[in-house]
Amino acid sequence: MAESFTMVAALNAALRDSLEHDDRLLVFGEDVGRAGGVFRVTDGLQDAFGEQRVFDTPIAEAAIAGAAIGLALAGWKSVVEMQFDGFSYPALDQVISHWAKFRQRTRGRVDLPIVMRIPSFGGIKGKEHHGESPETYYVHTAGLKVVVPSTPLDAYRLLRLSIADPDPVIFLEPKSRYWSKEEGALTVDGPRIGEARVLREGADCAIVTYGAMVTRVLAAADVLAAEGVQARVVDLRSLVPLDLSAVGAAARDTGRVVVVHEAPKTLGMGAEIAATVMEEAFDYLQAPVARVTGWNVPYPPASLEDLYLPSVERIAEAARRTVAY
Amino acid sequence: MAEQTEPFRLLSPDGAPVGDTDVGLEAEDLRALLRWMILARRLDRECIALQRQGELTVYPGFEGQEAAQVGSAFALGPEDFVFPSFRELAAALVRGVDAVQYLWYHRGTWHGGPYDPRATRFGPICVPVATQIAHGVGYAMGLKLDGAPACSLTYFGDGSASEGDFHEAANLAAVFAATAILFCQNNGWAISALHGRRSEPVPQRRRGAALAGARPDRALPHLAGGTGARQRRVRCGVRAGGRNAGGRGPRRDHIYAGAAGRVDFRLGLRRPAGVPRAGAGGGARRRWLSRSRWWPR
Lengths: 325, 297
Ligand SMILES: Cc1ncc(C[n+]2csc(CCOP(=O)(O)OP(=O)(O)O)c2C)c(N)n1
Ligand SMILES: [Mg+2]
Hints:
Mean pLDDT of chain A: 97
Oligomer: heterodimer
Strand content of chain A: 15-25%
Mean pLDDT of chain B: 76
Distance between the termini of chain B: 37 Å
CATH architecture of chain B: 3-Layer(aba) Sandwich
Number of helices of chain A: 12
Shape of chain B: globular
Strand order of the largest sheet of chain B: 1-2-3-7-6
Order of helices and strands of chain B: HHEHHHHEHEEEHEHEH
Bound molecules: thiamine diphosphate, magnesium ion
Number of domains of chain A: 2
Number of strands of chain A: 14
CATH superfamily of the largest domain in chain A: Thiamin diphosphate (ThDP)-binding fold, Pyr/PP domains
Largest interface: A-B, 32 and 36 residues
Distance between the termini of chain A: 45 Å
CATH topology of chain B: Rossmann fold
Structural class of chain B: alpha/beta
Largest sheet of chain B: 5 strands, parallel
Order of helices and strands of chain A: EHEHEHEHHEHEHEEEEHEEHEHEHH
Number of domains of chain B: 1
Largest sheet of chain A: 7 strands, mixed
Strand content of chain B: 5-15%
CATH superfamily of chain B: Thiamin diphosphate (ThDP)-binding fold, Pyr/PP domains
CATH topology of the largest domain in chain A: Rossmann fold
Radius of gyration of chain A: 19 Å
CATH class of chain B: Alpha Beta
Number of strands of chain B: 7
CATH class of the largest domain in chain A: Alpha Beta
Low-confidence stretches of chain A: none
Helix content of chain B: 25-40%
């Protein structure tokens, strides 16, 4: 029987293997050392690699992000953890003003091999500031790569690829999937950063999504299949670079596209996908692109969370309407 | 470094030596220091002229801050790394950055640092104030991990010291005992606001972060302070200078004058009380040096 991994275990293994593979790699952030991270993603790493390479920092997100730049100039690679999505914002200035621009500002002379891991998105009945969807801020900032794993094995692959990348990568971890399990072998082989994957084939419509919504979309595809509608499910994985050919192919092959994400609708990834579909496959479209998203409101308290997040039923209903159009 | 909030002074405003002026430098070094300061002032004035002619875009002048920059940069070793703000052309010259490449930035040819930051060990020009301080501290953390006998030197302004970034970075430096020198050039201004309006004196504030500090006055103390900081491997020095350090107060037309076009940000700018008139410091230094054994007659 193949071994099975939670996403937390897979991420932990990716950090462990990367630290082993590259002795210039550092892992730091708030409570990542002794405590092993509030989600246990860095559990045991300080014991294994020492306080020099895996360490706790002051609660100072801007300084954490800024220090990673100086460390890069001194020849060190960094994986920094933001404790939660809602607490990554103090670091935004460093990310936007420096991480994203450094390669260009130095005329390509200086790499910034830095990964920012952010436990992201809702679905855990968390407190205020613990369920944000910050992806658009980063996607909109030219100069960053932005990836979102949806399953444990892909989380391992994406994190290792992100660490090996010479450019800054924003790594958004769907915290509601941290304890989900997947069977198989941990490997970096497979799709690269910038490549989407098709998780289910289908000719009647395509549902494009990423992160924690992948599970709900797959569940919706099951519901639709029982009704005779075959949906292709595309897991973007990489929001920047975006796999234009996978999105274009999904639209051309099915003529009907639904986009699903947790983030509010306005200027979310759905808007970008819809526009991309028009640019890549306008003549093939049989129906307008549908968006199933969070609402344009601040992330709600736990008791209202289920009304906010796209449900299996909302996703299936949007697909039905798109197919019937 | 000793607790010191009174300026460390070797030269009075009228050019008379104060106390023991031997800072352990050869005559050759002293001449080089003066040469850099004169060269920097000449280049700065040229740049202001070029900016007025439209050859440069926004140009942040540094007249009166030559000593702070030249002295501190001169004290560094080849392995040390400088993280500038946007006003450190004089320090860049001393570090061997090509002035023409540096000025591509102000000519609007390229953002950041068109020069090679690794080869020159001079980081890209940094405009979002105080954000470069964490870069300097991170660099020093890296040096420490490598056990390298070097330091980083980060420049920032008095106004920038009000930013949270300054406090975050200073605290980080203290927590990791990083060999980072945080160099506050207090020119008494933050665009329009006087020092004291926008920031408390910086050397006092670094106590909150448990850092060593010093407040040098004029180039030689800057140099002495700089080498001292290096030699004693202090964890971190926050130092202030600039207005006190050189002849003249800040330029009346500050960095935004060029970009603003018809909007005149200069209105309301006044030379702060107690700041000597233009040229006083440079002349005093030269008078002192010409009286001394160091100046070729
Ligand atoms: C984060 C940020 N806020 C505002 C500005 C606009 N700005 C440019 S220079 C300046 C004043 C800086 O004063 P100080 O730190 O004393 O440096 P000086 O200009 O005197 O060298 C300001 C507010 C900026 N560059 N960065
Ligand atoms: Mg100032």
